[in-house]
Fold this protein.
Amino acid sequence: MKAVTDRPTRSQARATCAWERVNRLVGGAADSVRDAASKGGDAAEYARFAKRFPALLQSSGLCQAIAFARAKAERAQLCYIEHLAATMGLPGAESLEQASRTVGRAEYLRLTREAFAAAGWLARYSEALIGGETP
């Protein structure tokens, strides 16, 4: 009989990571340039983008959704992509962007599913911690 481990599920790990990122953003503890979106009212823009990103991901695909966010080059969107990558377990936005462009079809689909799961947690916590924003 196998012993039960106390290791969290993937969903729990995503939820914890997303909560830490959004909570840090709301708390104003800008530990890095990436979290600078907490300054200047960008948290509300972050929440709006977090709410819209899953639809963008569904309609455009992972690679184009990331490219769109990077092209906007606003702090809130760049911060969101960093948080998305971290919640997916990747080291940063650059690695997510590169992977979305270079991996094979099966891995691209896996990354997309992972992005949907991570984006869902980021949207939930940004709505809960920053507040429901109107589109």
